[in-house]
Amino acid sequence: MSPLTTEASLDTISRMLDELDEPRIVITEQFEILHANPAYQALYGQVVGQRCHAASHGYQRPCNEEGESCPLQMTLSSGQPERVLHIHRTAHGEEHVDVELMPLADISGHRHLFIEKMQHLPQASSQPVPDKMVGRSPAFRSMLLLARRAAPSRAAVLLIGESGTGKEGLARAIHNSGGDARRPFIAVDCASLTETLLESELFGYEKGAFTGAQQRKQGLVEAADGGTLFLDEIGDLPLSQQVKLLRLLESGSFRRVGGIHSIPANFRLIAATHRDLAQMVAEGSFRADLYYRLAVFPIRLPPLRERREDIPLLAAALLERVAPGRQLQLDADARQWLVEQAFPGNIRELRNLLERASLLSDGEQISREHLNAPSGLQTDSMPQPVAPAPMQPFQCGLLPLAEVQARYLQWAVRHSQLGRKELAARLQITERTLYRQLAALEKKTPT
After folding, report:
1. What is the structure's pLDDT at 26?
2. Each residue of 32-88: pLDDT tens digit?
3. Are 137 and 309 contacting, i.e. CB atoms less than 8 angstroms apart?
4. Secondary structure letter of residue 39 according to DSSP
5. What is the mean pLDDT of residues 209-213?
6. CA–CA distance, 8 with 276 (Å, rounded to integer)
7. Predicted pLDDT at 241
8. In 3-state terms, what secondary structure has residue 400?
């Protein structure tokens, strides 16, 4: 391509980019910025003639030589558009930016110019901001980029992560990034609802559907119309309800409890779990067909031990939440101590620890002593629940199978020292089935 043709092409491309609201630049294979549209200049200033890595990062060398992933190098290697998530220096401070690079080609196929598109992530911050997801680590940014890819689509998203890693927060970020944040976001905790209550809560019920149903009630699926239905702890959903959720996802419709008419459903599904659903499928406690419907786009949330460099940022943000109005700060020893902790409870455990420390601190500084609770608050000094006595082997002679099952159930209730919910789980039956069988035994037992 001749210099005259290149100049004409650049002029045409520049006019098109200037009409766009999102920051865009045109760069060469040597990282030189040939054009920046007004949206880019508003964030980074006059950058034409600079190298892109200098304008966005302040680096003297390309991003890949500074430990970052470089979209230009990736595109040069693949010949395809490439996408990364970086932290850029902008007029508003350091921000998370979704960077997408698209190669252009002349009629001979020779790569010559590249358009770099930037989209800022308002739901995340690289600074200790109390009302956003906070982090800078590679693991955190990888998770964010996956969430960013999933947000515009209607595909089902499965969030996988240990307890306390912030699954609901990420679900809300995906919802808010996917379009109009005013659309409903309906969260359902599958672990806190009983089997019968879960169905009526999800699908609603008609008047007279059961005793006490004095009027029609809208279900949460219906309430999520046009928005997002977030099913937290989906691994705790009973098998009887799994089949009904599967039918909802496959048919796109549902019926209220006691109803006869199908109602169309219009929502985006995000599910979350701390369990290994694939293992549960192998064990038979979770339906394989439902698992594959849920896991269209799985996103793993890293535990704190995999993003230790984020702990000081998270701690500063959490202190603003738990102690608003106080200028609490961690001293150097306290920060180092936090970074070294395992945090099996992840962000939830970190928040609890900081909230307790804020109550113990009378000044503006939190030290390691405040984080190490006094003996009266130490969790290892609290009385621990007594473990149930080991169950002895059940023995009986040859009897009809139904009689053996009845006797075993009576024996299990007497000797296990477990509550009904725990006992049902150990017996691998639903709590409802356990109650029904116990009620049948009581009727047979002479008074």
Report:
1. 95
2. 999 999 999 998 999 999 999 999 999 999 998 988 899 999 999 998 999 999 999
3. yes
4. H
5. 79
6. 57
7. 87
8. coil
Q: Which of 161, 138, 136, 157 is nearest to 148 (CA)?
A: 157
* Under 8 Å between Cβ of 331 and 298: no
User: 0.85 cut: is pTM over it?
Assistant: no
Scored b (16 or more CB within 10 A) or e, 152-186 reads eeeebbbbbbbebbbbebbbbbbbbbbeeeebebb
Structure tokens belonging to residue 383: 């009385």
Q: Which three-class secondary structure string do you get for 192-213?
A: CCCHHHHHHHHHCECCCCCCCC
Output the six-digit token pair for 193. 């609802």
- Is residue 109 within 8 A of residue 81, CB to CB? The reply is no
CA gap 170, 191 in Å, rounded: 19
CA dist., res. 244 & res. 258, Å (int): 14
Over residues 318-335, mean pLDDT: 93
Kindly tell me if the per-residue pLDDT of 392 is higher than 60: no
Render pLDDT for 115-137 as a digit per residue (tens, 0 to 9): 999 998 888 999 998 889 999 99
Residue 375 has pLDDT above 60, yes or no: no
**At a CB cut-off of 8 Å and minimum separation 6, what does 135 contact?**
124, 126, 141, 144, 307, 310, 313, 314
Q: Nearest Cα to 202, choosing from 155, 271, 150?
A: 271
Burial class (CB in 10 A: 0-12, 13-18, 19+), 39: middle
Alpha-carbon distance 139 to 307, whole Å?
6
Min mean pLDDT across 119-128, 259-268, 436-445 is at 436-445
395 pLDDT band (50/70/90 cuts)? low
**How far, rounded to the nearest angstrom, does the alpha carbon of residue 197 sit from its chain's CA centroid?**
25
Give the pLDDT mean for 423-447: 71
Rounded distance between C-alpha atoms, residue 345 and residue 307, angstroms: 14
Burial of 81 (0-12, 13-18, 19+ CB in 10 A): middle
- Residue 413: which H helix or E strand, with range? helix 401-416
